[in-house]
Design brief:
By secondary structure, the chain is mainly alpha-helical. The chain contains 17 helices and 8 strands. Among the domains are: 44 residues, Wheat Germ Agglutinin (Isolectin 2), domain 1 (2-Layer Sandwich), CATH 3.30.60; 104 residues, no CATH class. It has a two-stranded antiparallel ribbon with strand order 1-2. The termini are far apart.
């Protein structure tokens, strides 16, 4: 049967009639010739003229038109509004359903027979074997995914409304507290998680999601603040000390050579060297880091000269406040750039001239804050030698 021809018609010469008896008409859509009769072309108008498209092409065009999403939506809305605005149509539908239910004893028998056949052990066994086939499972997964994608919004809206019902929420609360549900949920999650998180694509997706989450600035700040507070607890510090003593130190002592070799290979990689070089350059430009490094250099100078005494960053900040952010010698306000004061830490008694003394020359009580100009002018002079400063201490 030719699929291009309505009702399986194939144009051919008729044995009992000539071509003049039944004229031929060519469909403008499929370009196939058919007899110019109402069986192949639909009539229209008062004169019953034949259309230019054959019946099959017209049906295909109508089918394609009705399957458009906007047309289907319009038809559904029209049916719904018609059903709501015509009470007689509603009554007719109700009466039709009632008579059909009341007069279908045969239908009930057929349904009972179908149910008995469907739930029979033989059919269930055959169905189980059939559904275990790999191609069948794959086909079902594709079909279910297509259905979920197609009706995703509708399913979400329905589930949202369904779980808002008070009776449903109460039933779920009661059911989720039962031991049967808890045991089922626990066993299900154990078996499912083992297989799910072993998939390579899932593991990659989880890693990417965690990396994206932890790289957020606010999340990093929150983790940093929490970690600082958490590790400052006495019980946590005691736990880490005991852990290092019991596990980490013996492990490191046992595999020290292997760990050192791994670290050496890692830090010798060109990309790691480049990354650390860029990070060190940016890190060293921070104002707080530069200030801390300056203080450490001054302390190390004191150690090299065998000078007693030391100080901290907090003591320097306190000294700045006590001097009201002014130079100790010229009493001018210190210069401020990018929110930071520019100053030098001056040893009132120079380290280069106080070697091997018992006085704590490097202590905070022997230090003052000076502007760069005054400190460079003073050099290695004692206070009574620096007349421009006007301070004898």
């Amino acid at each position: 049967m030719n699929s291009l021809s309505p009702r399986g018609y194939v144009p051919q010469e008729l044995p009992f009639a000539s071509e003049e008896a039944i004229p031929q008409k060519i469909c403008k859509k499929c370009d196939n010739p058919f007899p110019a009769t109402k069986d192949f072309f639909r009539p229209y108008g008062k004169n019953n003229n034949l259309r230019t498209e054959c019946r099959e092409c017209e049906k295909a065009a109508n089918r394609e038109y009705k399957n458009r999403p906007e047309v289907r939506k319009h038809r559904q809305e029209y049916k719904k509004s018609y059903y709501q605005n015509h009470p007689e149509y509603r009554e007719y539908i109700k009466a039709y359903g009632k008579t059909r239910r009341e007069s279908t004893e045969k239908r009930e028998q057929i349904l009972a027979h179908k149910r008995a056949y469907h739930y029979s052990p033989e059919r269930q066994a055959r169905l189980k074997v059939y559904q275990a086939l790999s191609e069948v499972r794959e086909r079902k997964l594709i079909a279910s995914k297509r259905y979920r994608d197609k009706h995703h919004e509708r399913r979400l809206a329905y589930m949202k409304e369904y779980y808002k019902r008070s009776e449903v929420r109460e039933h779920r609360k009661v059911y989720q507290k039962t031991p049967k549900y808890r045991a089922y949920r626990r066993d299900y999650l154990r078996t499912y998680n083992k297989t799910y998180y072993k998939r390579s694509e899932v593991r990659e997706r989880v890693r990417a999601r965690e990396k994206r989450y932890r790289n957020c600035p606010e999340i990093r700040e929150r983790y940093k603040a929490y970690s600082k507070v958490y590790r400052s607890r006495p019980e946590i510090q005691e736990f880490y000390r005991a852990y290092r003593k019991a596990y980490k130190k013996p492990y490191y002592a046992k595999k020290r050579d292997k760990i050192l070799e791994q670290q050496k290979n890692y830090y010798n990689r060109p990309e790691i060297k480049e990354r650390y070089r860029i990070y060190g350059r940016e890190y060293g430009k921070r104002p707080e880091v530069r200030e801390r490094n300056h203080i450490r250099r001054e302390i190390s100078r004191g150690y090299k000269n065998s000078t007693k005494g030391t100080y901290t960053i907090a003591q320097i900040q306190d000294l700045l406040k006590r001097q009201h952010y002014c130079c100790y010698y010229c009493r001018h306000k210190l210069e401020k750039k990018q929110g930071k004061y520019i100053y030098h830490i001056d040893h009132t008694f120079p380290l280069s001239r106080t070697k091997d003394t018992n006085d704590p020359i490097n202590d905070i009580s022997y230090l003052v804050i000076a502007c760069p100009t005054c400190n460079l002018k003073k050099g290695n002079k004692f206070p009574h030698e620096f007349y421009e400063g006007g301070r004898l201490l």
